């Protein structure tokens, strides 16, 4: 699977150092270093050995230098990166203009370059710009949240049991959702409350069998959120969609055409913000331990 071209190799050993799995080893023979592939079957296709090799001495059955792209100097200063991260806000008011294809392509590119556990690269992405489909999904999410969970939170027996099982913090949170949903249902304000009339949704999903799926999806979506800001786009997480998919996967997956063994772990509303405010807001003091 992996071969080292002895003519090109300078025996610097960098490939062996950067390999996450100890696939490439080096040894000294008669005072000379020899670098060799010891365990090719363990390769997870991370490509670090090839990237670090200046003379491009490594060939890989499944990776080609032709697909490597030099990115040059990274000119993002800590200050501009920090200000970007501090200025990130959840956007819930969008302009009606659609998100163009080239912007979607850029966002998906950075999403697919997020790290994944074991370099699995199995997260799937769906970008939905079809307003009728977004509406059908919103209806399904509202139906699932209310009928599978929230409506029972108005029942004293259920709430007492929840308090016992999950503690008072969780039950207070659910009681708040119950009041909020019930009031909005009765006043006809639920419409648009899930996806805020965003012109697009980005959904990240993976097979149930990937135990890192939730992290893999969240990290990919983080790339989308941050990249979107640099393009003048805004995002807002939809925990409600993720929650509804956990509660009734068949129903939600059915709307999106996902398979029965796939689960949504990340969902972002996406569009051009109607309002912008680059303000650093106060945050709660957190428990931070420096050891
Ligand atoms: C995992 C997660 C799920 C969220 N789900 C929703 C949601 O369903 N609807 C919504 O309006 N905001 C949602 N949010 C946004 C939070 O309410 C928001 O991050 C928080 O209020 C702080 O505001 P900021 O993002 O502008 O700093 C979610 C955020 C996260 C991280």
Primary descriptors:
291 residues; alpha+beta; Alpha-Beta Plaits; 4-stranded antiparallel beta sheet; two-stranded antiparallel sheet; 40% helix; binds flavin mononucleotide
Number of domains: 3
**Termini separation:** 43 Å
Tally of alpha and pi helices = 10
Bound small-molecule species: flavin mononucleotide
The gyration radius over C-alpha positions equals 24 Å
Beta strands, count: 8
> Roughly what percent helix?
25-40%
Poorly predicted tracts of residues:
none
Averaged pLDDT, please? 94
Strand order of the largest sheet: 5-6-8-7
3D structure, described in words:
With 291 residues, the protein is α+β, with helices and mostly antiparallel strands. The chain folds into three domains: 2-67, 2-Layer Sandwich (Alpha-Beta Plaits); 78-131 and 194-271, 3-Layer(aba) Sandwich (NADH Oxidase); 134-187, no CATH class. It has helices at 14-18, 48-52, 78-87, 101-112, 131-148, 156-166, 168-187, 213-230, 239-247, 249-256; strands at 2-4, 24-29, 32-37, 58-60, 124-128, 200-207, 234-237, 262-271. Helix 5 (131-148) runs antiparallel to helix 10 (249-256), helix 6 (156-166) packs antiparallel against helix 7 (168-187) and helix 9 (239-247) packs across helix 10. 24% of the residues are buried. Flavin mononucleotide is lined by residues 89-90, 92, 236-240. Residues 89-90, 92, 236-240 line the site of flavin mononucleotide.
